[in-house]
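Batch queue: ligand-bound targets. Current item pairs a single chain with pyridoxal-5'-phosphate. No template structures supplied; prediction is de novo from sequence plus SMILES. Inputs echoed for audit trail.
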Amino acid sequence: MTSIDWAKVRADFPILAQQVNGRPLLYLDNAASSQKPRAVIESLVNYYERDNANVHRGLHELSSRATDAFEGARTKIARYLGAESAEQIIFTRGTTEGINLVANTWGVANLKAGDVILLTEMEHHSNLVPWQLLAERTGAKLRFVPVADDGTLAFEPALLEGVKLFAFVHVSNSLGTINPAADLCRAARAAGAVTLVDGAQSTGHMPVNVREIGCDFYAFSGHKICAPTGIGALYGRLELLEKMPPWHGGGEMIVSVTYERATYKQPPHKFEAGTPNIADAVGLGAAIDYLEAIGRQNIFDHDAELTARAVHHLAEIPGVRVLGPQKSRGALAAFHAEWAHPHDLTTFANEHGLALRGGHHCTQPLMRKMKLPGTTRASFYFYNTLDEVDRMAEILRAAHRFFA
Ligand SMILES: Cc1ncc(COP(=O)(O)O)c(C=O)c1O
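Prediction returned. Tokens below.
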């Protein structure tokens, strides 16, 4: 393993050097959104100060620079995800929009009454509600892979019977479970089902290669991997993208237009109507450069060390139960404290400068299944330190003394 100077890495994040409520900020809400390194912030400033213009349209210098930077970011994403080509990368606002795109294009074109969409019981609302809407529209039915008591999926191939699409989360934002994406995709392919992987919590945290996973679609959000908000990407298998109808109509996505009809460009432009979010795409490209310089395996190993230490501390606090699998866990520890509601606990934490998340984490059905009002979640990224994890534990021990 390469040795990384994590203190130097942390110094790249100006926001972390502040006090909150008179204490040093202890930011452990990274699963909700990550912080941004100076390199990403500067890429935005640089873009707006030097290169800003509309893309694909102008023959002037700035337009060609903006186009190069925008398309360059697409190429970086393709490489980062292990895609065959940049045409397979569609810019979106984030994971939610990527999933909605697939539901509204591939889904509407391919599903009919009685077809089955297979999801899991641990999906974020963004990988549930779009399929509910599609099911209402097409008459398709939803089926769910159960979540076992240890927080893993109780998957069996028989669940794939009659399934046209299997959409599942790579790393659960509520439990931390790392699902065996390649195995699930292999089983789905053998059953003739198309697969979509929600990569919101995996993309910036571990090596991800869409070809090794063998999925048909993979969606992620830039803001969770050090990039700006409002930008993300959807990877799709080219053969499927070429057949899918567009969803938004407008400029940029057409070849020719009459008053009656239009013909469309090839993917990815067919799915990107209107002026895109150029600056933030450039910022996403800068974030990818930044993460690649650190190395995703190094990030994964560092995250794992932080998470293991957090789980260890939490297990020692009376009345605290850490959710999710003991092994193979993403960079988060969500727990139930029998002596405090998650909202009271996160408010207490905030008074000590500690940013945690309390609530249902956009997985209401899973909370209902677990008979919990919600959980409290600490989520980590590579700029967090073991010392911060120890400080979090101290604050939570103080919370136990206060509430219990
Ligand atoms: C597992 C998972 N899927 C999807 C999303 C939605 O991401 P976004 O709101 O960036 O579209 C999130 C965000 O928290 C998530 O954790």
